[in-house]
Amino acid sequence: MMSWIRIFREAVRLEKEKEQAPREGFEVEFLPAAVEILETPVSPAGRAVALSLCALFVLVLLLCIFGRMNIEAVARGKLIPLGHIKKVESLDMAKVESILVEEGQYVEKGQELIRLDPTERTSDLEQVTQEYLQDVLISCRAEEVLKALKSGLSVRSTGIREAVKQVAFSGGILEEEILLHQVLCNRQVGQFTAQVDDYDEQIKACRAETVSARARVKKLATLLPLYLEEEKVNRQLEESRLIDHMEWLRSKETLVNTREQLAVEESTINRCTAEISALEKRKTSFCESFLSERLTELTEARARAARLRPAIVKAREREKNFILTAPVAGIVQQLQVHTIGAVVQPAVPLLTIVPKDTRLEVEAMVENKDIGFIENGQAVKVKVDSFPYTKFGMIEGTVRHISMDAEEFEDGRILFPVKVSMENQHIQVDGRPVRLSPDMSVTAEVKTGKRRVIEFFLTPFLRGVDESLKER
Questions:
Q1: Which has the minimum average pLDDT: 143-152, 169-178, 216-225?
Q2: How large is the average pLDDT for residues 104-131?
Q3: How do the domains of the chain map onto residue ranges?
Q4: Does domain 71-81+359-470 match CATH 3.40.50.800?
Q5: Which of 273, 375, 430, 433 is deepest in the core (most CB within 10 A)?
Q6: Using the 8-state DSSP alphabet, how is residue 412 labeled?
Q7: pLDDT given at position 417
Q8: What is residue 145's predicted lDDT score, i.e. its pLDDT?
Q9: Does domain 86-116+322-344 have CATH number 1.25.40.10?
C-alpha cells in the first residue's frame, strides 16, 4: 500500500515538473467546463479591490472608535461695543427745532445733537416762576414787617431787597416789584403805627379825664362834710327861727348838688376806667390780629414757595432736556429724525452713539440645551455673515461672560446672552484690514468639548431605540 502511495506522489511530482505548452484561448473553449475553469483562473484585481475595501472599512471603524471630534455649540448673535451703544432719546413729546449732526459724524462728549422746541414748557415755567417770585416777595414783605414790629417800628429801606437776595431762584424779580413791595411794607407798618397811636391817644385822653375826675372827687369829698355840717346848723337855726327858711333851703340845695356832683364824678371815673380797659383790649386784639395776619401771610407764602420750588427745579431740568447732547464721544449712527418740525415721542431713541475707540465684542444668544456646557474661557470661532468665512476666514475669540438672565420669546424659545471677546477687530479683505462695525450679524461656534466619532453616528440609533422601547 505504501508503495502505491509513493508511486502516486512521484507521478504527481513528475506531472508538475513536466513543462506544458500554454494553451491558446480557442483551445480552452473546447475543454470540459471544470477543466476550463481550472485553466482560466479569476483575475487577482477583484480580490485586491475586495481586500482593500475590507481594510478601508476596518480603518474607518478604528478611526470612528478611537478618533475624536469637537463638540460645538452654535449661536447666532451680533457685534456690540464693549461699553454698549449709547442711545439718545427725548424725555417728553416735542417738536424738532434743529438737527445739528449727521449720520456717521464724530461728536465730542456734551456736544449738542438735536434741539427740541420748548415753547409750551417755557410758558409753563414762566408762569410757575412768576407765582413763585410773587410768593417770595410776599414772604419777604411779611418778614420785614414782623422785624419792624420787633425792632420798634423802624422799617429798613433795603430790607426786602436784602431778604430777596437770600432766596433761591429770585434773580428774575424786577426792581420795580421790589420797590412796590417796599412801599406796601412801609404802608402796612404806617397803618399799624397810626392805629396803635390812635388807641394810645384815646387811652391817654381817658386817663387824663380820670385824673381830673379823681381830683374833683377828692375836692367834693372834702367839701361834702362841710356842706353837711352847714345844712345841719342852718336847719337848727331855722327851727329856732333864727334864720330865714330860704337860707336853710339854699344850704340844703348846696349839699344835694355836692352829693350829686360827687356821684357824677365817681361815675366818670368808672366810665373812663372801663373805656381804658376796653381800649387796651382793642389795642391788644388789633396788635395780635395784625401780627397773626402777617404770620399767616408769611407762612402761607413760604409754603406756596416751597411747593413751587421743586416744580421750578423740575421744569428747568426739563428745559435742559430739550437740548439733546452726546453722553460720550463717538460716532453718530441710526439717526431717526431728518425733518424740522417733526414730532418725537418720549423714550423713543432718536440716534445712537458708538463710543470712540471702543472694542467690539459678540453678544450671542445661546439656546437652553447648550448653555449648561458653556464656561468662561472656552474657545470660540466667530463667523461674520458679511464676510463669508470660506473666503475671508473666521475670528478667534473667548467666552468672557455668561448671563443667567434668560430671554423667553413668543415661540417658546429660551435664549441666554453670552459675551465673547474677539482677538481681532478687523478682517482681511483683499489684503487690507476692514474694521468691523456694530450690529453686524455673526455666528459664534463655542467649543464645549470632544466625543468619539462613532458616538455621532450611534446617537440617533440609540435615541431611536430608547424612545421606541418606551412607546406603548
A1: 169-178
A2: 78
A3: 71-81+359-470, 86-116+322-344, 121-320
A4: no
A5: 273
A6: S
A7: 92
A8: 75
A9: no
